[in-house]
Write a structure and sequence with these properties.
Elements lengths: L2 E10 L4 E3 H5 L6 H8 L3 E3 L7 H16 L6 E5 L11 H8 L6 E4 L5 H14 L5 E9 L9 H4 L4 E11 L11 E4 L7 E2 L19 E2 L1 H23 L8 E4 L4 H11 L10 H4 L6 H12 L7 E8 L3 E8 L13
Parallel strand pairs: 4-5, 4-6, 11-12
Antiparallel strand pairs: 1-7, 2-3, 6-7, 8-13, 9-10, 12-13
The structure holds coenzyme A.
Length: 335
């Protein structure tokens, strides 16, 4: 079977930087509360004229540049915040990147969207439908957040990350390991936007057009699912936790990340994080983290990396790869 190999990486966040103190100007919260409960100090947010496709195009452009070759056979865009309900955002992104008329479609798995999209792209490559796939995870997440809801407004943020994948062999650096994915729709109400879909077309009560999260229950499920999925991915790859050089987990909340790492037995110095500066960027957080760490040298060729994510659905996933040598990766904060 053809393996799927990472050969390009890029990340991008919008320039508008928002501090905890900025949020405290219109919200009953404090820098101390936000830092101690979430680990977040700053985050980047889109301005009114920026949509998900704008973030996706820039991250995609950077990933294609890092891959050194602009051609791909398909574009998969993971997002919770498409530019509009219909059509999908991916065809516009493909066209603006100049890679059309390849197949391009959106994928909805909230904060696990990047891992689901990797798996989908690996399927396209395994079936020889495509030799090269651009996977982008992009979120203008703050556009669905109620600015007055202090339980979510302090956590979520905007950004995009992208990888170029190509057909290769399982032994190559960058080859994706076995993929573990799961979902539990019984708990769909833990993380939801109640209105705006076919079930409930318009808000029946104020605020139902916004994202809602039951924080405590989400916390518990996030820890359990990311820990379990990571263990399964390691077992399927034949790796021990001691062999993991870098844990790249969805940047949900610093306390969740610490607990997952502790339960897995991965020491803090092997955990990649950037939640303090970028917040929780939904599905974009894992590729943004990889781009950030590759740019500043925390992630280097040869590192054995464990990826995991969890989010609304509920949906979760995990996989492994040995980090490859890539073309230059820029700091996602670079304008
Ligand atoms: N600033 C100040 N106080 C806040 C606050 C804020 N931003 N948000 C909530 N509070 C208050 C609550 O009103 C509550 O006050 P009360 O005790 O007077 O009623 C108190 O803090 C505790 O609220 P609670 O919701 O129980 O806090 P928590 O310790 O569970 O922390 C989260 C809240 C959201 C940080 C935490 O539940 C969490 O991290 N959950 C997971 C979130 C996550 O990672 N989601 C992404 C998954 S993809």
């Amino acid at each position: 079977m053809r393996a799927t190999v990472v050969c390009g990486l890029g990340g991008h966040v919008p320039p508008r930087l928002v501090t905890n103190a900025d949020l405290g100007e219109h919200l009953d919260t404090s820098d101390d509360w936000i830092r101690s409960r979430t680990g977040i100090r700053t985050r980047h947010m889109v301005s009114a004229d920026t949509a998900t496709s704008d973030l996706a195009v820039e991250a995609g452009r950077r990933a294609l540049k890092s891959a050194g070759e602009a051609a791909v056979d398909a574009v998969v865009l993971a997002t919770t915040t498409p530019d509009r309900p219909c059509p999908a955002t991916a065809p516009e992104v493909a066209a603006r990147l100049g890679v059309g008329p390849v197949p391009a479609f959106d994928l909805a798995a909230v904060c696990s969207g990047f891992l689901y999209a990797l798996s989908c792209a690996a399927g396209l490559i395994a079936a020889a439908t495509a030799d090269r796939v651009l996977v982008i995870a992009a979120e203008a997440f703050t556009t669905i957040i109620d600015p007055q809801d202090r339980g979510t407004a302090v956590i979520f943020a905007d950004g995009a990350g992208a990888v170029v994948l190509r057909a290769g062999t399982p032994e190559e650096p960058g080859a994706l390991g076995p993929m573990v994915l799961g979902s539990d729709g019984e708990h769909r109400d833990l993380i939801e936007v109640p209105a705006g879909g076919s079930r409930q077309r318009v808000p029946h009560a104020p605020g139902e057009q916004y994202f809602r999260m039951r924080g405590r229950d989400t916390y518990r499920h996030a820890v359990e699912r990311m820990t379990a999925a990571s263990g399964q991915a390691l077992a399927r790859a034949g790796w021990t936790t001691e062999q993991v050089d870098r844990l790249a987990a969805h940047q949900a909340n610093a306390r969740i990340l610490d607990t997952v790492a502790e339960r897995l037995g991965i020491p803090a110095e092997r955990q990649l994080t950037n939640i303090a500066s970028l917040g929780n960027t939904g599905g974009a957080s894992v590729p943004l983290l990889l781009a950030d760490a590759a740019a500043d040298g925390r992630l280097r060729p040869g590192h054995r990396v464990l990826l995991t994510a969890f989010g609304g659905g509920l949906a979760w996933g995990a996989t492994t790869l040995s980090w490859p040598r890539l073309g230059p990766v820029t700091d996602p904060r670079t304008p």
